[in-house]
Write a structure and sequence with these properties.
- The protein has six helices and two strands.
- The chain has 133 residues and is mainly alpha-helical.
- Strand 1 and strand 2 form a beta hairpin.
Length: 133
């Protein structure tokens, strides 16, 4: 699936020279990719330089979880496509966290029903079946 790049990202990529081999080659051997330890060290340096506290729960996955959680309000299929998930259960159970802002919205922004619930019947629906007048 094709996902458009943001304009500033496209401009940054266009300024890079055409590369052969790995996008992130090993600093010692260009024919090998970065070791995960090198990537983690660079992440820790970047967090330190930016004055950010590391996010608990791993190295890069906390950022993936944060990205997914920030998009809970968007259609699941679109979030899955953009983030590379194949299964909504994985997205919802492993990556999207409960957050205070969404909980607040759940409590303070109820959906208003057209009719008040009467007896055990709700809005013309009883046990999942629509009733006819």
């Amino acid at each position: 699936m094709w996902i458009p790049l943001a304009e500033d990202v496209r401009c940054a990529l266009d300024r890079l020279p055409v590369l052969k081999g790995y996008l992130f080659p090993s600093p010692k051997r260009a024919d090998k990719p970065w070791a995960r330890y090198h990537a983690r060290d660079l992440l820790e340096r970047a967090e330190g330089l930016a004055g950010l506290e590391p996010i608990e729960g791993g190295d890069f996955h906390p950022y993936r979880r944060k990205w997914a959680t920030e998009r809970k309000h968007l259609p699941t299929k679109d979030v899955m496509a953009a983030g590379g998930w194949d299964d909504p259960r994985s997205l919802e159970t492993c990556y999207q966290d409960v957050d205070a802002e969404t909980l607040y919205a759940v409590v303070t922004e109820p959906r208003k029903l057209r009719k008040k619930a009467l007896g055990g019947r709700h809005n013309g629906v009883h046990n999942g079946v629509h009733e006819r007048s």
